[in-house]
Amino acid sequence: MGDADRLDVAVSGGSMGGLFTGLALRYDGHAVDVFERSTGELESRGGGIVAQPRMLDFLDAHGIAAPAEITTTTSRRRYLDRNDGVEREYADRMSFTSWDAVYRQLRDAFPDDRYRMGKRTVDADSAGRTATLAFDDGSTARADLAVVAEGGRSSTRDRLLPGVEPEYAGYVAWRGVTPESAVPAAVNERFEDVFTFYQGPHDLVLGYLIPGPDGGTAAGERRLNWVWYDDVRDRDERRLLTDEDGRRREFSVPPGKLRSDVESRLRADAEGLPATFADLVAATDEPFVQAIYDLTVPRMVFDRICLLGDAAFVARPHTAAGTAKAAADGIELGDALEGDVEAALDRWERERLEAGRRLVAEGRRMGENYMN
Question: Are 147 and 21 in contact (CB under 8 A)?
């Protein structure tokens, strides 16, 4: 095809970035197939997320989800001191949601017959005006455009950009999600309408309410999400990321898979936090850990193949924009694809490279400030 009136698009990766991209392109009139390596429903990628306006606007504009039905909100930001008192507090309106709540809405909006499970991409090639994805079952998909939305562990990015690797920041995020009903009432009240923090000498912990596993946002239906950024440079990072089965994880150990000695150390260390957060960690059944990385790429477009989301840039979670960045990449790609495809991809790449670099730099600045 010489123009972008209607493209056949193959998306490698069926998580947030892939679904936002697939839906944005479908709404712009393109034919999209999404190929996901998992064979069953995707597990939660980390619980709570900040619901950025661009993402919510997209969901609302296309009738995918009404923002009020999948978000919780706070009107104040509060910092606790070491003794669990209020160090400072100010007005600051924020919206939060959960990974599973958003994923469920996106997945329901995307046609089942165009979402292919059990398709792990092992190669990608572009020749002329055609891109081809090859899968581990021996099958292939040919399209006018291939979008790589495989996340931070993208094997396709590794082949397209050998030598481009995530850079470990030297600290981790311990994380957890627990039903508000499992938390003492006095603790739960500390998070009602409040985005709550504790800033230590070399760590930062925060918490907020998110929708429940079924999307419920009413009191009693929600969950508490907490994140503890912890400097672990005096510990063996490889050990922290080795799960209970002895499997070495690259980026995170999921809920229920922490080694018993690692979890015991976490719970013991958490007793030194302000009582609000100490009680919250104690009430969490399956905490997990995520190593903090930075990733930047020099290119996002390779003829008729493009990278987006965490396959291109990974910014530290302090920016509260990881999911929003993936969504924006896909939405902007849909907006850009008008007229000549190569010219459209060139414009999109220049704009998204700038946005990605800016976000990663901001994440580094914030992380250095918090951890030092």
Answer: yes
| Range 62-79 average pLDDT | 96
CA distance 196 to 205: 8
85 CB burial (10 A radius; 0-12, 13-18, 19+): exposed
Q: What is the mean pLDDT of the chain?
A: 94
Which residues, 6 or more positions from 322, have their beta carbon under 8 angstroms from its beta carbon?
A: 49, 310, 314, 315
Residue 155 in this model has a pLDDT that exceeds 70: yes
Instruction: Tell me the mean pLDDT in the region 91-106.
Output: 95
CA distances (Å), origin 259, targets 90, 150, 291: 39, 27, 15
Q: What is the SS3 assignment for 174? A: strand
Instruction: Please check whether residues 162 and 28 belong to one and the same domain.
Output: yes
Q: Do residues 244 and 314 both lie within one domain?
A: no
| Alpha-carbon span 226 to 293, nearest angstrom | 19
- For residue 294, give every residue at least 6 positions away whose Cβ sits within 8 Å of its Cβ, in sequence order, or none: 166, 167, 169, 314, 315, 316, 360, 363, 364
What residue has token string 């580094």? 364
Same domain membership, residue 245 and residue 191 = yes
Query: Structure pTM?
Result: 0.94
> 272 and 303, same structural domain?
no
Average pLDDT over residues 148-177: 95
CB 40 within 8 Å of CB 107: no
Does some domain include residue 204?
A: yes
User: Does residue 1 lie within any of the structural domains?
Assistant: no
Task: Report the C-alpha gap between 96 and 111 in whole angstroms.
Answer: 27
pLDDT at 96 over 90: yes
Do 140 and 207 belong together in one domain? no
Based on the domain organization, do 155 and 300 belong to the same domain?
yes
- Pair (334, 243) in one structural domain: no
Q: Tell me if 286 sits within 8 A of 256, measured CB to CB.
A: yes
> What is the C-alpha separation between 141 and 131, in angstroms, rounded?
8
For the segment 171-216, what is each residue's pLDDT rounded down to a tens digit? 999 999 999 999 999 999 999 999 999 999 889 999 999 999 888 9
